[in-house]
Amino acid sequence: MAARADSGAEATVIGEDSLSSICVKPAQLEPCIGQPFSAVGRHPLTCIGSFQAALELGDRSTTAAVFVIKEMTGLLLSWFDCVALGILPRDFPAQIRCYNKSTRRLPALKLGSRVDIQDPTTGRWNRIGVIVGVGQRRTYLVKTASGRS
After folding, report:
1. Contact predicate 107/54, CB 8 Å
2. Are 29 and 16 in contact (CB under 8 A)?
3. Closest CA to 78 of 146, 13, 149
4. In which domain of life is the source organism classified (predicted)?
5. pLDDT in tens, 1-19
6. Which CATH number fits domain 4-93: 1.20.120.450, 2.40.70.10, 3.40.50.1820, 2.30.42.10?
7. pLDDT tens digit string along 120-131?
């Protein structure tokens, strides 16, 4: 069965309507134990039961408790099971801190430098200007061909 990774989920869950596609009968389910389930915004979810399942992706596998949720469809893999299957790195989302690792500080712009100007509405870089003033914290006064600053 196809599944979706849910990096924010603490449990692997499946919709009640998907049980028949994986040959699990409601009578085979164990009772739900632990904290109640909720979706984004603390919307309560009804846990019907749980079962153990072998999850496989390529050469990786894990055994997981899968909780059956009345209000959902399909299969969502928890953060823990995504890590076990190699879908997410163990330190996810810590690698986001490395986003700027290879960036470098750009030199300050100098008076008289030619610059491209992005139109905030269209996102296009369709205007050219010249630096005519330098302020604090990398702020600049730019003059365009029409004489506007």
Report:
1. no
2. no
3. 13
4. Eukaryota
5. 889 999 888 899 999 989 8
6. 2.40.70.10
7. 889 899 989 999
